[in-house]
Design brief:
Strand content: under 5%
Distance between the termini: 41 Å
Keywords: Membrane, Transmembrane, Transmembrane helix
Number of helices: 10
Helix content: over 70%
Low-confidence stretches: none
Protein name: Rhomboid family intramembrane serine protease
Organism: Kitasatospora xanthocidica
CATH topology: Rhomboid-like fold
CATH architecture: Up-down Bundle
Mean pLDDT: 89
Largest sheet: none
Radius of gyration: 20 Å
CATH class: Mainly Alpha
Pfam families: Rhomboid_2 (PF20401)
Number of strands: 0
InterPro entries: Rhomboid_2
Structural class: mainly alpha
């Protein structure tokens, strides 16, 4: 089979961009909402009010105890990164979480499983990893592995949910690419770590690893279900011929 030409690749890319809103309406709307939220908080709100909003929606222990619903859902309406400082590590995180995770992998999840299930995966990863991370923080505080200041730490954004769909998207790859992709998904949260505060990495790294684990577990469940369905379809004609 002939390799696709550059003009063919460009045509395919333009077609994918043109049909993106129709094929992935949930993802398209969510990306627009995140971009508008970033502009609003970063450019239109007064700095002190923007900081107060970020503090209010951070999913730290104090906020989860005081106003859990507002913190959990408010946190999912912003991303913690930059779109302008292209030489910073924050921009790299934005490319991975907002660009690759939400823009690409959530769109694939939506096309593969439908909008309601894609939303469930995103929210399940965001909320599930946040609550699991909170439990790890409580455990670590009891053992003196984290400082007490972690209770009020700033921790908002979409990266846990994005990490979950990044892991789930391993299903979209050929078999030879799945192990390198899994290594990338697990390695990038560790790339920016400095000195660990104790035997555990920083709690945000823990959260990203837990959200990846949720995504891989879901991918394994989907693959197992598909394999059982194919096996049942293969055995059904043989059983009917008996």
């Amino acid at each position: 089979m002939n390799a696709p030409t550059p003009s063919g690749l460009l045509t395919g890319l333009l077609r994918a961009v043109r049909t993106y809103p129709r094929r992935s309406p949930l993802t398209f709307g969510y990306v627009l909402l995140l971009l508008l939220g970033n502009v609003w908080v970063g450019n239109l709100l007064a700095p002190d009010r923007a900081d107060a909003l970020r503090d209010h929606i951070s999913t730290n222990l104090d906020n989860l105890h005081d106003h859990p619903v507002t913190a959990l859902f408010g946190s999912a309406l912003l991303f913690d990164g930059t779109l302008t400082e292209i030489l910073s590590t924050g921009f790299g995180g934005t490319l991975i979480t907002l660009g690759l995770g939400i823009g690409c992998c959530l769109a694939w999840t939506e096309r593969r499983f439908g909008s309601p299930r894609a939303a469930a995966v995103l929210l399940g990863g965001h909320i599930g990893a946040t609550l699991l991370t909170a439990a790890v923080i409580v455990f670590a505080l009891r053992h003196g592995w984290y400082p007490e200041s972690v209770r009020q730490a700033s921790d908002y954004g979409i990266s846990y949910g994005a990490q979950t769909v990044l892991a789930l998207a391993v299903l979209a790859l050929p078999r030879w690419a799945r192990l390198p992709w899994a290594a990338f998904v697990l390695a990038w949260p560790l790339s920016g770590d400095g000195e660990w505060p104790g035997p555990l990495p920083p709690f945000t790294t823990v959260g990203h690893l837990l959200s990846a684990a949720l995504g891989f577990a879901l991918a394994a469940a989907v693959a197992l279900t598909a394999a059982r369905r194919r096996r049942a379809e293969t055995l059904a004609p043989a059983a009917a011929d008996r």
